[in-house]
Protein backbone atom coordinates (compact mmCIF):
# COMPACT_ATOMS: atom_id res chain seq x y z
CA UNK A 1 0.00 0.00 0.00
CA UNK A 2 1.35 3.48 -0.87
CA UNK A 3 2.32 5.72 2.06
CA UNK A 4 0.06 8.44 0.71
CA UNK A 5 -2.94 6.06 0.70
CA UNK A 6 -2.43 5.22 4.38
CA UNK A 7 -1.99 8.94 5.15
CA UNK A 8 -5.32 9.75 3.43
CA UNK A 9 -7.07 6.81 5.16
CA UNK A 10 -5.88 8.05 8.60
CA UNK A 11 -7.02 11.55 7.73
CA UNK A 12 -10.53 10.35 6.81
CA UNK A 13 -10.73 8.19 9.96
CA UNK A 14 -9.83 11.25 12.06
CA UNK A 15 -11.78 14.01 10.27
CA UNK A 16 -14.43 12.31 8.14
CA UNK A 17 -14.86 12.41 4.34
CA UNK A 18 -12.73 14.88 2.35
CA UNK A 19 -13.65 16.80 -0.81
CA UNK A 20 -12.40 15.60 -4.18
CA UNK A 21 -10.39 18.86 -4.37
CA UNK A 22 -8.60 18.00 -1.11
CA UNK A 23 -7.94 14.46 -2.40
CA UNK A 24 -6.63 15.73 -5.76
CA UNK A 25 -4.45 18.33 -4.01
CA UNK A 26 -2.83 15.61 -1.88
CA UNK A 27 -2.51 13.02 -4.66
CA UNK A 28 -0.80 15.48 -7.03
CA UNK A 29 0.85 17.95 -4.70
CA UNK A 30 1.76 16.25 -1.39
CA UNK A 31 5.33 17.51 -0.82
CA UNK A 32 6.77 14.01 -0.31
CA UNK A 33 4.43 11.49 -1.95
CA UNK A 34 2.47 13.65 -4.44
CA UNK A 35 2.49 12.59 -8.09
CA UNK A 36 4.41 15.62 -9.43
CA UNK A 37 6.96 15.35 -6.65
CA UNK A 38 7.82 11.69 -6.87
CA UNK A 39 7.07 10.15 -10.27
CA UNK A 40 8.57 10.09 -13.78
CA UNK A 41 5.47 11.56 -15.31
CA UNK A 42 6.27 12.76 -18.84
CA UNK A 43 7.16 11.17 -22.16
CA UNK A 44 7.05 7.66 -23.59
CA UNK A 45 8.62 6.24 -20.41
CA UNK A 46 6.20 8.18 -18.15
CA UNK A 47 2.41 8.33 -17.96
CA UNK A 48 1.44 10.85 -20.65
CA UNK A 49 2.89 13.03 -23.42
CA UNK A 50 2.09 16.74 -23.63
CA UNK A 51 2.17 18.84 -26.83
CA UNK A 52 5.67 20.31 -26.34
CA UNK A 53 6.97 16.79 -25.70
CA UNK A 54 5.46 15.63 -29.01
CA UNK A 55 7.26 18.20 -31.16
CA UNK A 56 9.62 21.16 -30.90
CA UNK A 57 7.27 22.99 -33.33
CA UNK A 58 4.74 23.60 -30.55
CA UNK A 59 7.12 25.59 -28.30
CA UNK A 60 8.73 27.33 -31.28
CA UNK A 61 5.42 28.76 -32.50
CA UNK A 62 4.53 29.89 -28.98
CA UNK A 63 7.95 31.57 -28.72
CA UNK A 64 7.25 33.50 -31.91
CA UNK A 65 3.76 34.36 -30.64
CA UNK A 66 5.44 35.87 -27.56
CA UNK A 67 7.91 37.88 -29.69
CA UNK A 68 4.99 39.33 -31.69
CA UNK A 69 3.00 40.17 -28.53
CA UNK A 70 6.07 41.85 -26.99
CA UNK A 71 6.42 44.04 -30.10
CA UNK A 72 2.67 44.82 -29.95
CA UNK A 73 3.23 45.90 -26.31
CA UNK A 74 5.75 48.50 -27.53
CA UNK A 75 8.85 46.31 -26.86
CA UNK A 76 9.22 47.09 -23.12
CA UNK A 77 12.89 47.04 -22.06
CA UNK A 78 12.09 44.65 -19.21
CA UNK A 79 9.20 42.19 -18.96
CA UNK A 80 8.32 38.86 -17.33
CA UNK A 81 8.31 35.81 -19.56
CA UNK A 82 6.33 33.56 -17.26
CA UNK A 83 5.22 29.95 -17.59
CA UNK A 84 2.86 28.18 -15.19
CA UNK A 85 3.60 24.49 -14.58
CA UNK A 86 6.41 24.10 -17.15
CA UNK A 87 6.84 20.32 -16.62
CA UNK A 88 10.25 19.32 -17.98
CA UNK A 89 10.80 22.77 -19.53
CA UNK A 90 10.47 21.63 -23.17
CA UNK A 91 8.04 24.36 -24.23
CA UNK A 92 10.15 27.19 -22.80
CA UNK A 93 13.42 25.77 -24.17
CA UNK A 94 11.93 25.57 -27.69
CA UNK A 95 10.29 29.01 -27.36
CA UNK A 96 13.59 30.64 -26.35
CA UNK A 97 15.47 28.93 -29.18
CA UNK A 98 12.94 30.23 -31.74
CA UNK A 99 13.11 33.70 -30.16
CA UNK A 100 16.84 33.91 -30.91
CA UNK A 101 15.86 35.68 -34.12
CA UNK A 102 14.79 38.61 -31.88
CA UNK A 103 17.81 39.24 -29.60
CA UNK A 104 16.20 42.43 -28.22
CA UNK A 105 13.27 40.29 -26.99
CA UNK A 106 15.65 37.87 -25.25
CA UNK A 107 17.55 40.78 -23.64
CA UNK A 108 14.33 42.19 -22.22
CA UNK A 109 12.88 38.86 -21.01
CA UNK A 110 13.10 37.98 -17.29
CA UNK A 111 12.27 34.30 -16.96
CA UNK A 112 9.86 33.51 -14.12
CA UNK A 113 8.42 30.01 -13.69
CA UNK A 114 5.58 29.04 -11.37
CA UNK A 115 6.27 25.46 -10.31
CA UNK A 116 5.74 23.68 -6.99
CA UNK A 117 7.70 20.47 -7.67
CA UNK A 118 11.42 20.64 -6.73
CA UNK A 119 12.12 17.60 -8.97
CA UNK A 120 10.58 19.35 -11.99
CA UNK A 121 12.32 22.66 -11.16
CA UNK A 122 15.62 20.80 -11.50
CA UNK A 123 14.58 19.37 -14.91
CA UNK A 124 13.54 22.89 -16.02
CA UNK A 125 16.90 24.31 -14.91
CA UNK A 126 18.74 21.75 -17.05
CA UNK A 127 16.48 22.12 -20.10
CA UNK A 128 16.35 25.92 -20.19
CA UNK A 129 19.98 26.79 -19.26
CA UNK A 130 19.21 30.48 -18.63
CA UNK A 131 18.73 32.45 -15.40
CA UNK A 132 15.35 31.50 -13.92
CA UNK A 133 13.42 32.72 -10.90
CA UNK A 134 10.90 30.19 -9.59
CA UNK A 135 7.75 30.90 -7.59
CA UNK A 136 5.31 28.66 -5.77
CA UNK A 137 2.48 31.07 -6.52
CA UNK A 138 1.60 33.50 -9.27
CA UNK A 139 0.94 36.21 -6.66
CA UNK A 140 4.70 36.43 -6.01
CA UNK A 141 5.55 37.71 -9.51
CA UNK A 142 7.34 41.09 -9.58
CA UNK A 143 5.41 44.10 -10.85
CA UNK A 144 6.38 44.27 -14.54
CA UNK A 145 4.50 43.76 -17.82
CA UNK A 146 4.16 40.04 -18.47
CA UNK A 147 3.67 37.38 -21.09
CA UNK A 148 2.19 34.33 -19.36
CA UNK A 149 1.99 30.82 -20.87
CA UNK A 150 0.10 27.88 -19.36
CA UNK A 151 -0.03 24.57 -21.24
CA UNK A 152 -1.87 21.71 -19.51
CA UNK A 153 -1.62 23.55 -16.21
CA UNK A 154 -5.28 24.26 -15.41
CA UNK A 155 -6.31 20.61 -15.94
CA UNK A 156 -4.05 19.63 -13.01
CA UNK A 157 -5.72 22.00 -10.53
CA UNK A 158 -8.06 20.45 -7.93
CA UNK A 159 -11.77 20.31 -8.76
CA UNK A 160 -14.92 19.83 -6.68
CA UNK A 161 -17.52 17.42 -8.05
CA UNK A 162 -21.29 17.41 -7.38
CA UNK A 163 -24.25 15.19 -8.23
CA UNK A 164 -27.80 16.39 -8.74
CA UNK A 165 -29.88 14.61 -6.07
CA UNK A 166 -33.72 14.84 -5.70
CA UNK A 167 -33.31 17.67 -3.16
CA UNK A 168 -30.56 19.65 -4.93
CA UNK A 169 -26.83 19.39 -5.65
CA UNK A 170 -24.69 17.33 -3.25
CA UNK A 171 -20.89 17.30 -3.24
CA UNK A 172 -19.11 14.00 -4.04
CA UNK A 173 -16.77 13.30 -1.14
CA UNK A 174 -13.92 10.79 -0.82
CA UNK A 175 -14.43 8.45 2.11
CA UNK A 176 -13.72 4.87 3.28
CA UNK A 177 -15.80 1.87 2.28
CA UNK A 178 -16.97 0.42 5.65
CA UNK A 179 -16.53 -3.15 4.33
CA UNK A 180 -13.13 -2.94 2.63
CA UNK A 181 -11.62 0.21 4.17
CA UNK A 182 -10.69 1.27 0.59
CA UNK A 183 -11.28 4.79 -0.73
CA UNK A 184 -14.68 5.32 -2.36
CA UNK A 185 -17.05 8.15 -3.28
CA UNK A 186 -20.08 9.13 -1.20
CA UNK A 187 -22.44 12.07 -1.49
CA UNK A 188 -22.39 14.76 1.17
CA UNK A 189 -25.43 14.46 3.52
CA UNK A 190 -26.09 18.20 3.06
CA UNK A 191 -27.15 19.75 -0.27
CA UNK A 192 -25.24 22.76 -1.61
CA UNK A 193 -26.69 25.95 -0.10
CA UNK A 194 -26.47 28.11 -3.23
CA UNK A 195 -26.58 26.69 -6.78
CA UNK A 196 -25.15 30.02 -8.01
CA UNK A 197 -21.68 28.40 -7.68
CA UNK A 198 -22.56 26.65 -10.99
CA UNK A 199 -22.83 28.34 -14.37
CA UNK A 200 -26.35 28.87 -15.73
CA UNK A 201 -25.98 25.98 -18.24
CA UNK A 202 -25.21 23.55 -15.40
CA UNK A 203 -27.62 24.72 -12.67
CA UNK A 204 -30.73 23.25 -14.30
CA UNK A 205 -29.27 19.82 -15.21
CA UNK A 206 -31.55 16.85 -14.39
CA UNK A 207 -31.29 14.46 -11.44
CA UNK A 208 -28.20 12.21 -11.67
CA UNK A 209 -26.16 14.84 -13.56
CA UNK A 210 -22.57 15.56 -12.49
CA UNK A 211 -21.13 19.07 -12.21
CA UNK A 212 -17.55 20.18 -11.66
CA UNK A 213 -16.10 23.48 -10.47
CA UNK A 214 -12.48 24.52 -10.12
CA UNK A 215 -12.09 27.39 -7.61
CA UNK A 216 -8.27 26.97 -7.77
CA UNK A 217 -8.37 27.62 -11.54
CA UNK A 218 -10.60 30.66 -11.02
CA UNK A 219 -8.14 32.01 -8.44
CA UNK A 220 -5.18 31.57 -10.83
CA UNK A 221 -7.19 33.24 -13.59
CA UNK A 222 -8.03 36.18 -11.36
CA UNK A 223 -4.30 36.45 -10.51
CA UNK A 224 -3.22 36.46 -14.17
CA UNK A 225 -5.87 38.95 -15.28
CA UNK A 226 -5.23 41.24 -12.30
CA UNK A 227 -1.53 41.29 -13.18
CA UNK A 228 -2.16 41.96 -16.89
CA UNK A 229 -4.78 44.64 -16.22
CA UNK A 230 -2.39 46.52 -13.88
CA UNK A 231 1.02 45.88 -15.46
CA UNK A 232 0.14 45.22 -19.11
CA UNK A 233 0.85 42.17 -21.22
CA UNK A 234 -0.86 39.04 -22.50
CA UNK A 235 -1.41 35.38 -21.67
CA UNK A 236 -1.95 32.17 -23.59
CA UNK A 237 -3.81 29.24 -22.04
CA UNK A 238 -3.79 25.88 -23.81
CA UNK A 239 -5.60 22.93 -22.32
CA UNK A 240 -8.31 20.38 -22.93
CA UNK A 241 -11.99 20.83 -22.27
CA UNK A 242 -15.19 22.15 -23.83
CA UNK A 243 -15.69 25.65 -25.29
CA UNK A 244 -18.91 26.10 -23.31
CA UNK A 245 -19.77 25.21 -19.71
CA UNK A 246 -21.82 22.01 -19.54
CA UNK A 247 -22.73 19.40 -16.94
CA UNK A 248 -20.69 16.17 -16.95
CA UNK A 249 -17.94 14.39 -15.04
CA UNK A 250 -14.45 14.57 -16.54
CA UNK A 251 -12.27 13.66 -13.54
CA UNK A 252 -9.82 10.95 -14.67
CA UNK A 253 -6.61 9.15 -13.80
CA UNK A 254 -3.90 8.04 -16.24
CA UNK A 255 -0.98 5.77 -15.51
CA UNK A 256 1.39 4.31 -18.11
CA UNK A 257 -0.72 5.88 -20.92
CA UNK A 258 -3.85 3.97 -19.71
CA UNK A 259 -6.92 5.15 -17.79
CA UNK A 260 -7.11 3.76 -14.26
CA UNK A 261 -9.17 4.07 -11.06
CA UNK A 262 -8.47 7.56 -9.65
CA UNK A 263 -8.95 6.43 -6.04
CA UNK A 264 -6.48 3.54 -6.25
CA UNK A 265 -2.85 4.28 -5.42
CA UNK A 266 -3.03 8.07 -4.91
CA UNK A 267 0.24 9.72 -5.91
CA UNK A 268 0.99 7.05 -8.54
CA UNK A 269 -1.29 8.28 -11.38
CA UNK A 270 -1.90 11.61 -13.10
CA UNK A 271 -5.26 13.10 -12.10
CA UNK A 272 -6.92 15.70 -14.34
CA UNK A 273 -10.28 17.23 -15.22
CA UNK A 274 -11.50 19.16 -18.25
CA UNK A 275 -10.99 22.91 -18.17
CA UNK A 276 -14.14 25.05 -18.41
CA UNK A 277 -12.99 27.68 -20.95
CA UNK A 278 -16.23 29.66 -20.81
CA UNK A 279 -15.85 30.05 -17.08
CA UNK A 280 -12.17 31.14 -17.45
CA UNK A 281 -13.06 33.66 -20.16
CA UNK A 282 -15.82 35.15 -17.94
CA UNK A 283 -13.39 35.48 -15.03
CA UNK A 284 -10.90 37.28 -17.32
CA UNK A 285 -13.52 39.69 -18.63
CA UNK A 286 -14.74 40.45 -15.07
CA UNK A 287 -11.17 41.37 -14.07
CA UNK A 288 -10.82 43.86 -16.94
CA UNK A 289 -8.94 41.87 -19.60
CA UNK A 290 -9.86 41.32 -23.24
CA UNK A 291 -10.05 37.72 -24.44
CA UNK A 292 -9.41 36.09 -27.83
CA UNK A 293 -10.93 32.65 -28.46
CA UNK A 294 -11.22 30.03 -27.29
CA UNK A 295 -10.41 28.38 -30.61
CA UNK A 296 -9.36 24.79 -31.16
CA UNK A 297 -5.67 23.98 -30.82
CA UNK A 298 -5.67 22.80 -34.47
CA UNK A 299 -6.99 26.16 -35.72
CA UNK A 300 -4.54 28.10 -33.55
CA UNK A 301 -1.42 26.14 -34.55
CA UNK A 302 -2.29 26.07 -38.25
CA UNK A 303 -2.96 29.83 -38.24
CA UNK A 304 0.45 30.36 -36.65
CA UNK A 305 2.01 28.37 -39.51
CA UNK A 306 2.64 24.89 -38.09
CA UNK A 307 2.11 23.17 -41.48
CA UNK A 308 4.70 25.46 -43.12
CA UNK A 309 7.12 24.92 -40.23
CA UNK A 310 6.71 21.14 -40.58
CA UNK A 311 7.40 21.38 -44.31
CA UNK A 312 10.53 23.41 -43.65
CA UNK A 313 11.83 20.93 -41.05
CA UNK A 314 11.06 18.01 -43.37
CA UNK A 315 13.24 19.46 -46.16
CA UNK A 316 16.47 18.49 -44.39
CA UNK A 317 15.14 15.36 -42.69
CA UNK A 318 15.74 11.64 -43.33
CA UNK A 319 12.63 9.62 -44.37
CA UNK A 320 12.00 8.33 -40.79
CA UNK A 321 12.46 11.86 -39.39
CA UNK A 322 10.06 13.21 -42.05
CA UNK A 323 7.47 10.61 -41.03
CA UNK A 324 7.92 11.66 -37.35
CA UNK A 325 7.43 15.37 -38.22
CA UNK A 326 4.29 14.65 -40.25
CA UNK A 327 2.91 12.41 -37.55
CA UNK A 328 3.53 15.11 -34.89
CA UNK A 329 1.77 17.70 -37.06
CA UNK A 330 -1.26 15.40 -37.39
CA UNK A 331 -1.27 14.56 -33.68
CA UNK A 332 -1.23 18.22 -32.62
CA UNK A 333 -3.69 19.60 -35.20
CA UNK A 334 -6.05 16.86 -36.47
CA UNK A 335 -9.58 17.19 -35.04
CA UNK A 336 -9.60 13.44 -34.29
CA UNK A 337 -6.43 13.74 -32.20
CA UNK A 338 -5.42 16.77 -30.07
CA UNK A 339 -6.62 19.33 -32.63
CA UNK A 340 -10.15 19.82 -31.40
CA UNK A 341 -10.37 18.54 -27.79
CA UNK A 342 -7.62 21.01 -26.86
CA UNK A 343 -8.54 24.71 -26.87
CA UNK A 344 -6.59 27.94 -26.76
CA UNK A 345 -7.66 31.11 -24.98
CA UNK A 346 -5.66 34.36 -25.04
CA UNK A 347 -5.95 37.29 -22.63
CA UNK A 348 -4.63 40.79 -23.14
CA UNK A 349 -4.53 44.21 -21.61
CA UNK A 350 -7.37 46.24 -23.20
CA UNK A 351 -4.83 48.51 -24.94
CA UNK A 352 -3.36 45.58 -26.92
CA UNK A 353 -4.51 44.60 -30.40
CA UNK A 354 -6.13 41.12 -30.85
CA UNK A 355 -3.75 38.19 -30.45
CA UNK A 356 -2.22 36.37 -33.44
CA UNK A 357 -3.69 32.93 -34.16
CA UNK A 358 -7.35 33.68 -33.43
CA UNK A 359 -8.59 34.79 -36.84
CA UNK A 360 -10.20 38.07 -37.80
C1 LIG B 1 0.54 18.26 -16.84
S1 LIG B 1 1.96 19.08 -16.30
C2 LIG B 1 2.20 20.18 -17.69
C3 LIG B 1 3.61 20.35 -18.04
C4 LIG B 1 3.99 21.26 -19.17
N1 LIG B 1 3.27 22.51 -19.19
C5 LIG B 1 3.88 20.58 -20.50
O1 LIG B 1 3.08 21.00 -21.32
O2 LIG B 1 4.65 19.62 -20.74
C6 LIG B 1 1.46 20.14 -14.98
C7 LIG B 1 2.58 21.01 -14.44
O3 LIG B 1 2.03 21.93 -13.48
C8 LIG B 1 2.75 21.82 -12.25
N2 LIG B 1 1.77 22.13 -11.18
C9 LIG B 1 0.67 21.42 -10.87
N3 LIG B 1 -0.04 22.05 -9.90
C10 LIG B 1 0.62 23.19 -9.63
C11 LIG B 1 0.38 24.27 -8.74
N4 LIG B 1 -0.69 24.29 -7.95
N5 LIG B 1 1.25 25.29 -8.73
C12 LIG B 1 2.34 25.28 -9.54
N6 LIG B 1 2.62 24.27 -10.41
C13 LIG B 1 1.78 23.24 -10.44
C14 LIG B 1 3.29 20.41 -12.24
O4 LIG B 1 4.33 20.22 -11.33
C15 LIG B 1 3.69 20.30 -13.71
O5 LIG B 1 4.91 20.97 -13.96
Give an overview in words.
Helix 13 (306-315) packs antiparallel against helix 14. The chain contains 15 helices and 15 strands. It has a 7-stranded mixed beta sheet with strand order 4-3-2-5-10-15-14, sandwiched between helices. A hairpin with a 2-residue loop joins strand 6 (160-165) and strand 7 (168-176). The chain has 360 residues and is an alpha/beta fold. Helices cover 40% and strands 23% of the residues. The N and C termini lie far apart (55 Å). The chain has helices at residues 3-15, 20-29, 35-38, 51-54, 56-72, 90-98, 103-108, 118-128, 200-203, 215-231, 277-286, 297-303, 306-315, 319-333, 335-341, and strands at residues 18-19, 79-84, 109-114, 133-135, 146-151, 160-165, 168-176, 183-191, 210-213, 233-240, 252-255, 258-260, 270-272, 290-296, 342-348. It has a domain at 37-158 and 214-241 and 276-348: Rossmann fold (3-Layer(aba) Sandwich). S-adenosylmethionine binds next to helix 4 and helix 6.
CATH superfamily label of one domain: Vaccinia Virus protein VP39
Q: Percent helix among the residues?
A: 40-55%
The level 1 CATH classification of one domain is Alpha Beta
The overall pLDDT average reads 94
What ranges have pLDDT less than 50 throughout 5 or more consecutive residues?
A: none
Distance linking N and C termini: 55 Å
- Oligomeric grouping of the chains: single chain
- Major sheet characteristics: 7 strands, mixed
| Number of helices in the DSSP assignment | 15
CATH topology of one domain: Rossmann fold
CATH architectural arrangement of one domain: 3-Layer(aba) Sandwich
Strand order of the largest sheet: 4-3-2-5-10-15-14
Order of helices and strands: HEHHHHEHHEHEEEEEHEHEEEEHEHHHHE
Taken from the alpha-carbon principal axes, the silhouette is: globular
| Helix vs. strand class | alpha/beta
Q: Bound small molecules, which ones? A: S-adenosylmethionine
Tell me the fraction of residues in β-strands, as a range: 15-25%
> Over the alpha carbons, how many angstroms does the gyration radius reach?
21 Å
- Count of beta strands: 15
